[in-house]
Amino acid sequence: MSLLERIAALEAELRAATAGTADEVERFRIAFLGRNGSVTALFDAFKQVSAEEKRALGQRLNQLKQAAQARWEELRQGATAGPATADHALDPTRPAALDPAGTLHPITLVRGRIVDIFARIGFTVSEGPEVEDDRHNFGALNFPPDHPARDMQDTFFMEVPGGTPAEGALALRTHTSSVQVRVMEGRRPPIRTVSPGRVYRNEAISARAHCMFHQVEGLYVDRDVSFAELKGTLDHFAKAMFGPEVVIRMRPSYFPFTEPSAEVDMSCTICGGGGCNVCKHSGWVEIMGCGMVDPAVLANCGIDPDLYSGFAFGMGVERIAQLHYRVPDLRLYWENDVRFLEQFNAEAFRS
Ligand code: DAH
């Protein structure tokens, strides 16, 4: 018999094989896949054939091995979940075969991790609505009507039945900074809170942008809160999230609700700062915006800026997740492809 025929015969044989008990399944494994098993023997015979034959044969042989492994797996499942056979009477004390369970979504895992890091240093968690009014999303945060800063965020406005936009415009919130306003309106300092949630922007969907994504906003208001504390807090976050070797830097920036404002970069976790295509060969990746809460924002929310100061920051959860999991395309998160989703599990985040 040629090697090809032997492969075909063996394939038929293992497909027809049955096993009712765990012992029989183990005998199947030894007979086909064990060190002296028949599939293993064909791999030995393969070493003798000529170089031209090797290519086609190698492929068939690998298929055979995969078929043997798949059949073994099938028999194993059958032996645990299948009905009791004569020599394997029903044993009600055996643990049940577990149903396959889903896993948490990677964005849920990363959001939980971010919140956890801040919770451990005294931040509470607060949330606000996704459909937001103009005051909370823009006005109280120092974006006057018609101010060009509103163009920084392309907004989905919603029609208010019977109302003119000017009277009561509602929008899908463009950032979780809106929750800052809600928290400050309702509480007195000291305030230390993080606000995770969904945000929406009118962006074309691509590998790098989406019309819906997640942010975590942070807010700390008390007497004498300093920029040094902001920097220390964010440095702690970056190290807790990505490892002790990570460093951050701040670049001056502009946000209407903070003064001074900064953009925070972190040393690239992928290349360690040496330069790669994720950090565009700069060694740094941008992870969030931050700054000292503008006194006008404190005043808008009923907090006396002569007594209190604060810092705030806002980060994109998908961005943090991308650096953590190295997923190159944002769209993958929202396509609900089980093959993608089942690769993430909470174990990686146990701390
Ligand atoms: N809201 C900003 C955005 O969505 C992010 C941000 C920047 C939040 C600076 C802040 C901050 O609290 O201080 O782009």
Low-confidence regions: none
Specify the CATH homologous superfamily of the largest domain. Bira Bifunctional Protein, Domain 2
Q: Count the helices. How many?
A: 12
C-alpha end-to-end distance:
58 Å
Mean pLDDT: 90
Q: Please state roughly what percent of the residues sit in beta strands, choosing from under 5%, 5-15%, 15-25%, 25-35%, 35-45% or over 45%.
A: 15-25%
Which hetero ligands occur in this complex?
A: 3,4-dihydroxyphenylalanine
Structure write-up:
This protein is of the alpha+beta class and 351 residues long. It has helices at 3-16, 22-33, 38-46, 51-81, 106-119, 134-137, 165-168, 177-186, 227-242, 295-300, 317-325, 338-341, and strands at residues 124-125, 131-133, 157-158, 170-172, 191-200, 212-222, 248-255, 258-267, 284-293, 309-316. A hairpin with a 2-residue loop joins β7 and β8 (258-267). It is elongated.
Protein topology:
Elements: H1 3-16, H2 22-33, H3 38-46, H4 51-81, H5 106-119, E1 124-125, E2 131-133, H6 134-137, E3 157-158, H7 165-168, E4 170-172, H8 177-186, E5 191-200, E6 212-222, H9 227-242, E7 248-255, E8 258-267, E9 284-293, H10 295-300, E10 309-316, H11 317-325, H12 338-341
Parallel strand pairs: 1-5
Antiparallel strand pairs: 2-4, 3-4, 5-6, 6-10, 7-8, 8-9, 9-10
Helix pairs in contact: 1-3, 1-4, 2-4, 3-4, 5-11
The protein binds 3,4-dihydroxyphenylalanine (DAH).
